[in-house]
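Re: the request from the purification team.
They wanted to know what the chain is likely to look like in 3D before they choose a buffer screen. I agreed to run a prediction and write the result into the notebook, where they can find it.
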Amino acid sequence: MSSVAPTASSPRPNRIAIRRALLSVSNKNGILEFAQALVARGVQLLSTGGTAALLQKSGIAVTPVEAITQFPEMLDGRVKTLHPAVHSGLLARRDHSAHMQALQQAGFAAIDLLVVNLYPFRETLARPSASYEDVIENIDIGGPAMLRAGAKNHDGVAVVVDPSDYSSLLVEMDQHSNTLGWPTRQRLAKKVFAHTADYDAAISNLLNALPASDCAPADRGCMPPDPKTADLYPDILTLQFHRVQEMRYGENPHQSAAFYRESDPQAGTLANYTQLQGKALSYNNIADSDAAWSCVRGFSDPACVIVKHANPCGVAIGDSAAAAYQKAFKTDPTSAFGGILAFNVPLDEPTARDIAQQFAEVIIAPDFSEGALKVFAGKANLRLLKLPLGEAAAIASGRELKRVSGGLLVQTPDRNTMSASELKVVSRLQPTAAQLEDLLFAWKVCTWVKSNAIVFCAGGMTLGVGAGQMSRIDSARIAAIKAQHAGLNLQGSAVASDAFFPFRDGLDAVADAGAQCVIQPGGSVRDDEVIAAADERGLAMVFTGMRHFRH
């Protein structure tokens, strides 16, 4: 195959006339209206299968593809557009006389506009009842081939994969005598190759994740693999992300940065936000917002989480958003300055008035009342993010990605759903019902604090947070110091440690600060020593059997 482009006989056309269009869509949203609009503008329509039948039923003049290929669809529709009459019409260079002569000699005509979207592979895979055969039959062949052909030749062809582009194309055609310009064709071509790459990635990820089989599905007695048995970690993992914005800088001003969203983000994840007001989000804003949102959405009671530099500096639950905010703010008013605030309930006007008294970078909530929006309107730089909670189960079933030099770490999300019945009491002293509530609250917060993590809590609020230290005892000391600086009393408090106490000194430190009960994973070779220290100091202590490192 030659890699040398043929010599053009005329310059690249800036605008191309739309005279002939081929429509073949799985997603038929808006296709009738678009087809009618094209016909009204004098465009000849070609179409295939179900799309042609829909257009004909609606009284829209359309030529079936088999009329130009002189060959009927076959193999249950697996073959219908894989024909020179179609692909020559898409691939012939309009600026190359030999191409156009060859097209004419073959009795074919150029196709100026291609409208194609593909078989619903992902949608089929998502159906609980989908079989292996169902999924395989929804791998489109002719569609991607046409898309790639037309997009390769976007010098002379406009290719549409997204129904949201229909209206803008009609507007441009009306403004420019039924022509489409080079910038539009190039923009559409970019979308095509991103779309087909994403489509192929979904197929590759499934097939590379299915268990190996010793027999083919066509073999008698062979059971084809069930798509629901696909491994979470395929042999080859292909991902696609879409750029949302470029940023002024990254973590520091000398670093450049951009934010990308997954091609199909899970409901409830940060990437689904809608920004209602404020400056563009920075790199650090997004990182901190993700930490705050991940933490707050784990609570069922009205909750507020305040994050500073990726760590919760105040977390609380209450009867209302306002009550939760007031308690969370008390934990560490100093660190809350310039923080990220997240709520798991809609934000009302009274809460907004409380928040407006401090400086915040970002506020996240499932919704904002009109009154709250009016309060915040006076703070033009304050970023407000509206974000649906989504289903916790859906997010828990996904993957977390972390880039390292030359590679990618992939794991399941850390979701802390520990209940009181799963705790093991290891001390002589039994925790009270109220202490168990505080312990489970502290344990949930501890999940989102950088390791090593120590969290003091009482009454559904954090009192002191020690995060990210190289030794656990230092985290304990820092948490106690921060509580003291905030004027909070740690007497009778509950303490969570994200991993075991390697020595009794950490336990002694929290006891000295006033803690009366402790929750920790256990698992140290010195567990007996630490349990004995708890008994000696009169603390109730429970083991979870599960740690929550966060790096």
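For the purification team: The CA atoms of residues 19 and 43 lie 5 Å apart.
Please add any questions underneath this entry.
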